[in-house]
Amino acid sequence: GECLWQLARHAAAIATWQKNLVAHPSDSQTHAKLGAALSHQGKHAEALASYEQATTGAPGDPSLALETARIALSLSKIDQAVPHLERVVKLTPNDPEAWQMLGQSYRAKNLTDLALNALQRAVQAAPHLSKPHAALARLLNEINKLPDALTAISDALAIDPDSFEVISTACDVFIKANRLTQAITAARKMIRL
User: Fold this and answer.
1) DSSP at 41
2) What whole-number distance in Å separates Cα of residue 123 and Cα of residue 86?
3) pLDDT at 98
């Protein structure tokens, strides 16, 4: 399968992996390869099913769980993604991306306290990254904790003042905090980006 994939014979590679799974239905590595190939082909629902099989066979593999969660989230299947993300942060508690994804998933499910905790853990795991700070600021802004939101967005801006995501969040926080001059400055910067 891998050779066929590298030769850009994607359909043949997928067929080979599918045949292999008929003979070895619990082969986690083949499920993962098939999932990646199907995802690459834009067949996300089929990819998710294959990744689910892979994670069942390899429950201790955080990278498989994270990829399964990514695909589930791309299909807006938050309830399906959350257990995988919870497994990832249990297996790799210092993974800021997994904590951020988990926090945003909890936020989408209106589990505010869990979301807040997860996003704070993302910031603790990677205080040098702007995205966790911005995600935390967004949530704090939504729940009307404006002083904390202003602190989080200030931290994000100090790390990456040119990030569209950070500036967009800053604009929202500044508007809600009635800091209109800062909001206008942020909006102008977004337009220039």
Assistant:
1) T
2) 17
3) 97
